[in-house]
Amino acid sequence: MEENKVSDIALSPDLFEKLDDSEKNAEKIAYESSTYFQDAWKRFKKNKLALIGLVFLLVMLILSIVVPMISPYTYDGQDLTLQHAGSSLQHLMGTDKFGRDMLVRIMCGGRISLAVGFAAAAISLVVGVVYGAISGYCGGKVDMVMMRIVDAMYSIPDMLYVIMVVVALGANFVSIMIGVCLTFWMDMARQVRSQVMTLKEQEFSLAAFVLGASKSRILFKHLIINSMGPIIVTVTMIVPRAIFYEAFLSFLGIGISAPQASWGTLANDAKGLVSTYPMEVIWPVLAICLTMLSLNFIGDGLGDALDPKKK
């Protein structure tokens, strides 16, 4: 009897109410599928300073390319009747001691300074990643010899390398880039080496080896790919360092030769006029400071965004 009562209750249609379609998935918990870099971009956008830095850097890049192209003035065009002219509609940032438009010269200087920074980062990325990856993956005597070479090069100050190359090859864009790249790749190599040495003992690396993957495939398709977070952060830190080195050399007078102008040469040309025409110094110094600050903000933002532990 009791079993019949239970079955009657279970089958009674009055005890059940059909759910509306909108309520069926009310308690479902699911995350939108996204790739690693999509997720990193979402976290990067939450960092306001990093986002502001990225916007400023993009604006500076666009202005450095576009302004000299559309401006009626050139970076070396002189007008001695407009020496040290203040800001006006014709010359938004004024003119220098030769009557040259400061806005055009600063944007042309931005081309050189930013080109040095990004070229140094790109070359350091390629050389440092390959060198550090091979050293970390091979280990043993190969690692010992390769890293002792790096230690020996580290014993000489970075700036000395740059100065020697500039003095030997002349003051131009290529010599500064070579001098900067001679040392900057070493930081990248050390960073990649430590990452590869850690990752090559992980399960996914051992599984790829057991399945018959070649050493080169494991190295470039698995280990380096999984090290991209720290690698990208290191690259963003190389760019402001390279810009500073170029500006420092130009300020000392051994950088880009006249009439070409970088931010460092512009500051060097106007340093004697800081008490009478301070804006001629402030504009290039402000460009250097804001660009380096933006790149540091971007580097910090990428460090947080690419950290898998913060997902």
Give a verbal description of the structure.
By secondary structure, the chain is an all-alpha fold. The model has no long low-confidence stretch (mean pLDDT 79).
Topology:
Blueprint: H1 2-11, H2 36-46, H3 48-70, H4 102-138, H5 140-154, H6 158-169, H7 173-199, H8 203-210, H9 215-223, H10 228-252, H11 263-270, H12 279-305
Annotation keywords:
311 residues, mainly alpha
Task: Compute the CA-based radius of gyration.
Answer: 29 Å
- Poorly predicted segments: none
Which structural class best describes the helix and strand composition? mainly alpha
Q: In percent, how much strand structure appears in the residues?
A: under 5%
Quaternary state reads single chain
Question: What does the largest sheet look like?
Answer: none
Helix content: 55-70%
Query: N-to-C terminal Cα separation, in Å?
Result: 58 Å
Alpha plus pi helix count: 12
Mean pLDDT: 79
- Strand count: 0
Order of helices and strands: HHHHHHHHHHHH
The global form is flat
Quickly describe the structure:
It contains twelve helices and no strands. It is an all-alpha fold.
